[in-house]
């Protein structure tokens, strides 16, 4: 019984490991964006952010979905004891990744000018996009390794490689941006945009170097693991192996719905920017003005938003192999339990993040980016609900993919995107909401996707999400947390501003407010029975956390 229970919770443990690593990576990413933003400025942030958004879209078109596809296919074979076929899937996927990644990297480099000038209308992002192009090829290969390990329900290699990748990225990105900014400034003359343009290109070089280092790490791990896997293949009694044709066909049939679904799901920021720039240009804004405004949204709010969203994006890969195994066995009861646990766990973590970012929007912006203007804080407050909705949408999409319902997230994303674009144009043209139109339209997009996904999950799995513990209790606890955090910040900021300069006072007060918020959230959630002792014990280091909570009388 204990073994069975442990097996059932293993996917959450693995998901937590990956989520913890991703949170660390995102925090590192957020920290290095402080000096990077200072170097780039809002204008440079627009160039850097544009190049990264285009890179992300092109990555999705080529090989971004390979880790999920490989994970799903390897998980299915390993669950059936077919280690030889699992290895053959890995080999075929690697060949597929090398070809697709190389082609897309070359096309990105050659067509960077067309994409940036004619589509995005951000001419000065061309150099940054060309510099980052080789990362598409490297990421494709790394993705196959990550998918192979995830398919065997071990997230540690992926998690460790992500942390290593982000540390290297932080160092090289800031150094590259600084060096290239100084070089650009020295040759700029009257062209004030040359320095931030060159700095953005120097910054994207960090992505190339970091994914190279992560790939080397994954290769070393694979080589050390290969002995164990060879033993598993020797124990595999299978004589008939799947043909290359069957494997490639399966990869393509698995990957295409995911590619189009992820593309539609993630193309929104790039499409938003193109629409936003075009409409604001027609309303009389200069190129520098609308690039600066969108640079705040892209380079500040979305950077902060991506930290809590890392939880959903990491739990999603962990739930896919677990759901695939349950569906192979026809164990719908186990599948429902996994969906319920993952959704509840995600909400317990993301709801307080969203409320906290809304409550402390201005202090956080001032702390992280040294920006205490009303616009960045207003964007964060208006967009806080987006965090929760995108988390649910990401997870529910992964659930459908784990259930082999590949086409439905694609259809749902297309419907949501179409409505989103219409609403965005109306908000920008008719209501002239400027960047807030982008925020509100982006909140609507995941909301529609969530509704459609849940209807499908309910229909195919006969599943209904529990509401009280999943949404209501975390929301009540987060509401109390938000009030406590604002009060603590107000008191300590008033106190420390007498002693320290304004920014130092804000930093200390914000950190204390966040800590007070975390403690108050956990206290209220546990007291309302939103999180029980046995649930905490099942988490990584759960027994240690339970003992600590007993000592401070939370339990």
Write the layout of secondary structure elements.
Blueprint: H1 2-62, H2 66-79, H3 83-120, H4 126-132, H5 134-151, H6 156-187, H7 194-235, H8 244-266, H9 268-282, H10 287-329, H11 332-359, H12 361-369, H13 374-402, H14 407-429, H15 435-461, H16 468-496, H17 502-527, H18 533-537, H19 542-551
Sum this structure up briefly:
This protein has 555 residues and is mostly helical. 86% of the residues lie in helices and 0% in strands. Helix 3 runs antiparallel to helix 4, helix 3 runs parallel beside helix 8 and helix 14 (407-429) packs antiparallel against helix 15.
Order of helices and strands: HHHHHHHHHHHHHHHHHHH
Number of helices: 19
Spans where pLDDT lies below 50 across 5 or more residues? 1-9
For this structure, the quaternary state is single chain
Mean pLDDT: 87
Number of strands: 0
Cα Rg: 24 Å
Q: Quick one: overall form?
A: globular
End-to-end distance, in Å? Answer: 26 Å
Residue fraction in strands: under 5%
Estimate percent helicity.
over 70%
Structural class: mainly alpha
Question: Largest sheet, if any?
Answer: none
